[in-house]
Design a protein that fits this description.
10 helices; DNA-binding; Arc Repressor Mutant, subunit A; alpha+beta; about 270 residues; Beta-Lactamase; elongated; about 45% helix; homodimer
Chain lengths: ~270, ~270
DNA sequence: TACGAAGTTCTGTATTGTGGAAATATGTTT
DNA sequence: AAACATATTTCCACAATACAGAACTTCGTA
């Protein structure tokens, strides 16, 4: 399965095309550009696009020379099913609505997927600045609140190995860019039961995150709230952390898991088990 | 583009596999079953799955003989982008939250895509029964509220041609299953500015829908509210239609379009233009 | 009206996706 | 505990098919 030999080349190309089309956004992409960008002949790209179009994976607007390709809506169903399968978003979203209502901040739910923190649900605060919380975005774990919570919940050696694998580049001047600093921060997270992303991913943005746990204390995901740093200076984070963790506990409870208090106390045990 | 010759077979197979995996849901699907179901050898299916897995399009759980394939989260990003590209959901969802809050019913926003009504956003009513409102679901237009509104907004010949193309099978005893009955209903929708799906898709479920219009009065989509028929008998639909249309107008307005009142009055003109 | 630039179709060829069979790993039964 | 059954993974050879180049068509533009 790891063997690179057993792959389907044309399918890989099709996925490359999809990524390109995704990047082109609302404007759409042209056949010629798409073909050139991924290094494929026009007829080859044409055949792939025709196949994707027939299945609704891409849509085309315009005729003839002005044709543009955009992402099709059939992807939506698959994406939504993928999220539904996690069993987390459905439970979390109503709770996040409460949370956002209570504290007036945008909230999200995310989970670990192949070493990245992936946002699987969001509730925008009414009237708030729109934070870039695109669903499905894969963020490196070291600079996001949810990412760091999920790392802290892992056995430490595994967490550090993961950091080495996906990397931990600086995104802002405040990003943590050494294993030592990151490991220290994970210690703090374990101790206080929540993580703080203090302008580590985006300047001016602060983020507080707490874990969600399932049966046996296994980590299922994390929720977070995001706001402008100037609206939430560090010394006030604790006042936000309380409702955050309380709502995270509600989700954990609904999923048959322990509260944050119990889960983090359990952690050394689960770690030793590895 | 219509020519069936210019397709990539292996890519089509991969999409078939994805559909199967989607059907298998949370439980996941096995390689052997997937290969058999779509009539492919195990090694061929294996190569396709390996490719999809490497890209996060599918995930696998379990090792060796117990390996199961499920939809991966990378689809989420693409699906979300596809919706964002429509420019409709982002505007509609906050308004739908208001609407759901005001009348306590689950609301949705949908648009036409290749002859089908596709749900691109939903807001569940708190505590309500969970209606099957999976995002991206493609429903035939004749038996859904949003579908019928969108049909009514089309030039009538085009609407009827579309109905013939995708079919209009009975889903319940109350489904409209003749062109005459459907065309009559479209007339009523044009007159009253909203559509009623009175247990035509699902017994015991009633649905009221109104159109959303953009610049120049073009139809962008439709929103709907859903509830149990016993909670909303026909004679009370009008009381729901008022806030429904009012909120639809808010969305249209935000998108630079006319109110329902104006849009439906404009309709004969746009129809004549074809 | 001619030109250029894009999409579409055609066709031969080499790549590669495919099925059969064998090997390996895993779970189950005796 | 050993033999069996079942599923995945690997190997290999061949035929199918994905691909590039060139020709054709269509459309926008000078």
């Amino acid at each position: 399965m790891t063997d690179e030999r057993y792959r389907v080349q044309s399918l890989g190309r099709a996925l490359d095309l999809l990524e390109r089309i995704a990047d082109s956004g609302q404007a759409g992409a042209r056949l010629t550009d798409l073909a050139r960008d991924i290094g494929l002949s026009k007829p080859a790209a044409y055949a792939i696009l025709a196949t994707l179009r027939a299945r609704g994976v891409v849509t085309d607007v315009g005729e003839g020379m002005t044709r543009r390709y955009r992402l099709g809506l059939s992807l939506l169903r698959l994406g939504d099913l993928a999220v539904a399968n996690t069993g987390l978003a459905d439970v979390a979203l109503p709770v996040l609505r409460d949370l956002t209502q209570e504290i007036g901040m945008t909230s999200r739910v995310a989970m670990m997927d192949d070493g990245f923190a992936v946002v699987i649900g969001r509730v925008d605060a009414p009237g708030a600045i729109r934070f870039d919380a695109a669903l499905g975005r894969r963020e490196k774990p070291h600079c996001s609140g949810v990412g760091k919570v999920l790392l802290a919940a892992m056995p430490r050696p595994a967490a550090l190995a993961l950091l080495e694998r996906v990397g931990y580049p600086a995104r802002t001047p405040k990003s943590l860019t050494s294993i030592v600093a990151l490991s220290d921060d994970l210690d703090r997270i374990v101790a206080r039961h929540y993580a703080i992303d203090d302008e580590e991913d985006h300047e001016g943005i602060i983020c507080v995150a707490a874990g969600v746990f399932g049966r046996g204390g296994q980590t299922l995901g994390a929720i977070s709230v995001t706001t402008l740093k100037q609206l939430l200076p560090l010394e006030q984070v604790a006042t936000i952390a309380e409702p955050l963790v309380r709502h995270a506990d509600l989700i954990s409870r609904a999923l048959g898991g322990p509260s944050a208090q119990e889960a983090w106390a359990l952690r050394p045990l689960t770690e030793a088990r590895l």
